[in-house]
What we know:
Blueprint: H1 2-8, H2 10-45
Helix pairs in contact: 1-2
Amino acid sequence: MALDLLFSSDYGLFSVFVIVFLLGMSFWFPYFFRKKMREDEQRQAR
Length: 46
């Protein structure tokens, strides 16, 4: 019943999209910030 509602309604699909988007951001942001910190460290070392 709950899974039917989750995948068949507009607000259920939007909820799934938001959850997937937030999980993707939780992996992408640390990667992005570490990359920028490494670039900054290399620039400072020059």
